[in-house]
Prior knowledge:
Blueprint: H1 5-16, E1 25-31, E2 35-42, H2 43-47, H3 51-69, E3 71-80, E4 86-99, H4 106-166, H5 177-197
Antiparallel strand pairs: 1-2, 1-3, 3-4
Amino acid sequence: MAVSKLxxxxxxxxxxxxxxxxxATLALVYAGMTESxxxxxxRAQFDSFPVGDFALDIVNAAEDHAQGIGxxxxxxxxxxxxxxxTVLAMSWRAGDGLNLNLDGTIESQLAQLQRHLEVMxxxxxxxTNTLLEHYQEALSxxxxxxxSLEEVRDAxxxxxLEQLAETPxxxxxxxxxxxxxxxxxxGLDRISTTLKKKGMLGSGDAKPETVKKPD
Length: 215
């Protein structure tokens, strides 16, 4: 029976992690309607064999069990403490493509439903990743376009400022002395008119009053 190397390497890497001190048993568990142990090894047994050999034995045991059941199954590898509680765990599927016992039983229907949901989840994840990649590409393109437009804008602005700096400022014509005199006269006329209206300035034609001499 050919053993998939794709799952052997991940299991080997997982086993290479230092297990906590409370881990007492390494168990290969079949995750059907109810969990059941396929194989188990003590901590001492695990420590006495190379990790690579152990990973290969675990994968072989899972594949043999799936072949015996006749369908693809899910398995878990668990480190258990002395009370049987799970400390660390990982899971995978074995018996890929085995569908011999899909006969309408509850367990068979659950296995079909589980595979269907897994396929849907995988397709959904792939679609989401593809969409995110497209969004990322669009965002990167938009950022490049904005940067390019800003560079063009800055270049035009710099050119405009340079042209303004090179253009001589038109001289403002000075006011002639005649214009100044005319404005002064106009201003005096307005003042004189205002004073006359207020009776503060005579018209210039009034005759002085005759002072009577005393008798």
